[in-house]
Amino acid sequence: MLRKTRKMAAFTLLECLISLIVLSGSVLVFDGLTKILSQEIQWQETNCQKDWLLFSEQLLAEWQGVELIKVEQNRIYVNKNGQNLAFGQSKQDDFRKTNEKGQGYQPMLYGIAQSNVGQDGQMVRPKVTMKDGLERSLIYDFTETP
Q1: Which residues face 99 on adjacent strands?
Q2: C-alpha angle with apex 99: 91 to 106, nearest 5 degrees?
Q3: For residue 77, what pLDDT is reported?
Q4: Is 0.70 topped by the overall pTM?
Q5: 130 near 112, Cβ under 8 Å?
Q6: Which of 3, 8, 9, 79 is the most buried (most CB within 10 A)?
Q7: What is the pLDDT at residue 12?
Q8: 118 Cβ contact list (under 8 Å, min separation 6)
Q9: Is 112 helix (H, G, I), strand (E, B) or coil?
Q10: How far is CA 15 from CA 10, 21, 23, 45, 113, in A?
């Protein structure tokens, strides 16, 4: 009978268990981070605050250097470079920019439950309530005409 006198290097049972624990811990951490990331993406998709911020920036840019004509029937009528425009909620669920007759379609904000436009002299306050209950308002002063 032949006997091997050399010792072979091999993994012990303890080393295998430690490597399995490290591997499973890494998988659990990766799984947890993936769940957190998917929840964040879902929240970002349903959150209307970023839409409001974009809308308010667009509205302020549109109203730079324009002249207020009137506020009537929940719409804001302005004169921009000789062209009369109207801003307000449509019959749908969006706030849009149209010409003074309501023609043309340029939506600026979707998902509106209701909107209300108030006026105090040259100051205009559009107030918007989103379908998810978020309420926001913006105050703009038209006293600085071009």
Answers
A1: 85
A2: 60
A3: 92
A4: no
A5: yes
A6: 79
A7: 85
A8: 71, 124, 125, 127
A9: strand
A10: 10, 10, 12, 45, 62
Which of the 8 DSSP states describes residue 52? H
Encode pLDDT of 102-115 as tens digits: 787 788 888 888 88
Q: Cα(115)–Cα(102) distance, rounded to whole angstroms?
A: 17
d(CA 145, CA 61): 14
How far is residue 61's CA from residue 32's CA, in Å, rounded to a whole number? Answer: 42
Q: Where are the beta strands (DSSP E) in the chain?
A: 67-72, 75-80, 83-89, 94-99, 106-110, 112-120, 123-130, 135-137, 140-141
End-to-end CA distance of the chain: 107
pLDDT tier, 144 (very low <50, low <70, confident <90, very high otherwise): low
pLDDT digits (tens, 9 = 90+) for 29-81: 999 999 999 998 887 777 767 888 888 898 888 888 889 999 988 889 999 88
Query: Is-contact 85 77, C-beta < 8 A?
Result: yes
As a residue count, the chain comes to 146
